């Protein structure tokens, strides 16, 4: 019986990939464990091994095809004497199969393009824009700042020779060498503290945490040493450095790898906290973070790394902290979010528009300093507010915004503020439960309808 | 505690002995005064005195050059005085006044001096160890030939981040000297109740770091060990560990009655091993100074300490708007 070979998922967040190269050809005998192909994910090129035995009857997706969705049949394995063509036509492989016959690459773009924001004054009108992934934008920001300032260096697990666990630091070792792009042992508490000392000593470290879940081990150095020393020294000893890395849920990595720490860090005086959504903001804000004379927590998101956005082509594009961005103007309800929460906020706004509800969507971009003025101004117009974040509900950023609105815009509110958050549970592993634990677009839509009494 | 070795007289001089005497005495008198001011309610919170351990910092400072860095824990007054910080500024910080090194915002445990390359004053046990390695990392990066002294106690030596730091310091050949001030007690826990591996310096071997134990009641032995360690670091050979066997006469902090050891134990060390008495003996038996000359020094030191105490009492409390400054280097507090 013929066996379909399917495009594999090679990372927790992989949705599609490039079939870079076949290492077997039609008619070859294949044993379990043989390397069949090389597949490029957005993070790495991986070898793909056979699980079953048989003869490679038909290749359905030719080498060089981009955007092959996970679980698409890419080849058919037949048993001796079986008709390869018949087996192949039986395989349900529509789009990529046609690509196999006419050798045209599949037309699907490598990454879905996110909605463009409402025009706003971050860049001069007429600036050329270039579609860039968040991943590339972060790398470009670091590279530009490292070219500009010799005291800037990057350290963390797998940042150098491996090119970054999530490929954020790709190419940096080649350009800047091992003095400035430094692989550390797996020792978060130690290297976070070492980074703090290097900052006291006159350098500008960028400390990458493979994920912010692991920064829990380094919390004492971040909070007690990095954030408080300027104050405790009466202004003598500052700590100009960036702690960065992916934060929040990725996909199916369960409770210990899926936490959003935005509210934790935003709680601490002495830290600045940035959580960008778009590639342009990732770039402009990371450059600002590296130049900032204070410790900056820069919270990225693994799922956003592969998303493309327009990034202005400018010699030196930086964005100020403490300035929210209005992505979408509206009149009926204000939806406030940041980071990956913006995905739900924008999807909800789109759906609400179809129901005749005009939502204004605000991306906070930085959580400390927090641009409450923009939120208050918007609420004075819409009289209603919904906040969206993936973090836990208790003592969340949404809670804080609710409190600020109650104090500063009480008379303008026509409904209680609703906080849409992740659920108050450790992240479960099971796919269906994980989906339930995360905030959803539907919850945001329902909240918006509730505050507008629809 | 290691027994005292006979100091090699050829390695010292009258001037050096007098300097050591003055510097150690300054620390002791300063700490006694701090204890007194604490009793009067002029110093608050935690206050950890350095009395008994003076030879450690005085000996090691004698091995430094201008630009070398130092960082330590919360038992930090001695380190600050030994590296040349102004006793007035230190004492005024203890009393929480505007004239203190941190404008009264840090207190006993959190003081810094960029000018004297003193990087704190850290209140979390062991946290200064990776930070100190980071200072050495910055020196190596900047190729400036400087060495960093990282001081920590026998208590901190059991912290995980110390092992993490040893590993990185040796991996990257950082010019850092790890100084374990083994005063025998981590607060109230004697070394042997905290570890079955009580020779802390030997732990460096697991990471490839050389080191040695040193008699910390002999300032000349400390200086000699410091010079050896500094030479190792400046030659680019990476870190070095000095475990300096010392003793604190007072409790862990002012509120510690020290019931975990006998009065006789403390008394015996004070009488037989005291580092200041040791130098005093060397000065007198070597005929480098007379009793009267030493009395004159005592008087001078007392004057310096009294002056510092007066300054610390008279300096005003910080202005109320200091509450909101120095949180960020560039901007006002939250929501600027």
UniProtKB/TrEMBL annotation, chain A:
One Pfam family it belongs to: Biotin_lipoyl
Key words of the record: Lipoyl, Oxidoreductase, Pyruvate, Thiamine pyrophosphate
Cofactor: (R)-lipoate; thiamine diphosphate
Protein EC: 1.2.4.1
Biased composition regions of type Low complexity, renumbered to the chain: 87-117
GO MF: pyruvate dehydrogenase (acetyl-transferring) activity
GO biological process: pyruvate decarboxylation to acetyl-CoA
Cross-referenced InterPro entries: 2-oxoA_DH_lipoyl-BS, Biotin_lipoyl, PDHB_mito-type, Single_hybrid_motif, THDP-binding, Transketo_C/PFOR_II, Transketolase-like_Pyr-bd, Transketolase_C
Keyword Disulfide bond: no
Signal peptide: none
Spans annotated as Disordered: 87-130
Quaternary structure, from the entry: Heterodimer of an alpha and a beta chain.
NCBIfam families per UniProt: PRK09212.1 (NF006667), PRK11892.1 (NF008854)
PANTHER family attached to this UniProt entry: DEHYDROGENASE RELATED (PTHR11624), PYRUVATE DEHYDROGENASE E1 COMPONENT SUBUNIT BETA, MITOCHONDRIAL (PTHR11624:SF96)
Cited function: The pyruvate dehydrogenase complex catalyzes the overall conversion of pyruvate to acetyl-CoA and CO(2). It contains multiple copies of three enzymatic components: pyruvate dehydrogenase (E1), dihydrolipoamide acetyltransferase (E2) and lipoamide dehydrogenase (E3).
Record-given protein name: Pyruvate dehydrogenase E1 component subunit beta
Species assigned in the record: Rhodovulum adriaticum (Rhodopseudomonas adriatica)
TrEMBL record, chain B:
Pfam families: E1_dh
Gene3D superfamilies: 3.40.50.970
Dehydrogenase E1 component domain ranges (all copies): 23-319
EC category name: oxidoreductase
Organism superkingdom: Bacteria
MF-aspect GO terms: pyruvate dehydrogenase (acetyl-transferring) activity
Entries under InterPro entries matching the protein: DH_E1, PDH_E1_Alpha_Subunit, Pyrv_DH_E1_asu_subgrp-y, THDP-binding
Cofactor: thiamine diphosphate
Coiled coil: 287-314
Keyword list, A-Z: Coiled coil, Oxidoreductase, Pyruvate, Thiamine pyrophosphate
E.C. code: 1.2.4.1
Catalytically driven reaction(s): N(6)-[(R)-lipoyl]-L-lysyl-[protein] + pyruvate + H(+) = N(6)-[(R)-S(8)-acetyldihydrolipoyl]-L-lysyl-[protein] + CO2
GO biological process: pyruvate decarboxylation to acetyl-CoA
Subunit annotation: Heterodimer of an alpha and a beta chain.
Job of this protein: The pyruvate dehydrogenase complex catalyzes the overall conversion of pyruvate to acetyl-CoA and CO(2). It contains multiple copies of three enzymatic components: pyruvate dehydrogenase (E1), dihydrolipoamide acetyltransferase (E2) and lipoamide dehydrogenase (E3).
NCBIfam families found in the cross-reference section: PDH_E1_alph_y
Listed name of the protein: Pyruvate dehydrogenase E1 component subunit alpha
Gene giving rise to this polypeptide: pdhA
